[in-house]
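Hi, here's the filled form for the chain we discussed.

Project: internal
Contact: R.S.
Residues: 296
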Amino acid sequence: MITELRTFIAVTRHGTFAAAGERLGLTQSAVSSQIKRLEESLGFALFDRTRRAATLNEAGATTLARAEELLTLFGKLGDLPDQASDGGLLRIGAIASVQSSLLPRALVPLRQKYPTLRLSLVPGVSMHLMDQLDAGELDMAITIRPPFGLLPELDWQTLVHEPFVLLVPAALKGSDWRALLQAQPFLRYERTSFGGRLVERFLRDMQLSVNESMELDEIQGLVQLVANGLGVALVPMVQAPDPLPANVRAVSLGEHTFYREIGILQRSAKAGRPVVAQLAHCLRDAAQNASKASGV
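And the returned structure, exactly as it came back:
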């Protein structure tokens, strides 16, 4: 029933079954089925339905407050038994590029301070991780900054700003990024991802038309496609452990450079837990040390 409660809360937050389904990665009919199951279990309707809308009724409003309380309690099941203890479980969500750069470096001092702490590292794209955090399934998420406003119960801390560059095969001559981008097959950073939306906005603002070739939500995958001569790609220069392949070069966007902001998302109520606060501190230190090492 936890899944149905999360879907119910999503419908009330996003206004419609369709909007909730888009946020949760479900079809509208799947959302409708979950809400129907929840109503049948409770024995009363949660919404007043018309042909065009579903409006939360009085019973639904009362149930919403209780559902939020239940999910908050459910999210605390993995909390440390004592906030001063170094046991328990910490659930961390992180995008792929962070898992191979900032996060491992931050976990070294965290493990030294909390040697018996159990860690659950959850991979995912930014939107999905944010939804898991909002649902109480994660204690912290390290993501790209959302291109829209955050819910009031979520806190954001910036770690790094990663500049976008144009990756091209090394054998391709020229340094005019605009000409290269428009002449070569374009390997697109998947447009529904947070990073992909930044690329889409850049192309629109620069009034650029490109020769669409492939679309992928994986930076290392885009790098390998460029390395194999399949096109060019706009990607952020992430703090990866390995340099670019020898057959790939990065062309600066100069004064038109735009940035991907990476940071920490936390629920406000979780931010005060000593172990969560300590991990945030370790991540900030890791980001600062990396910036100093790169001369940024």
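Let me know if anything looks off before we file it.
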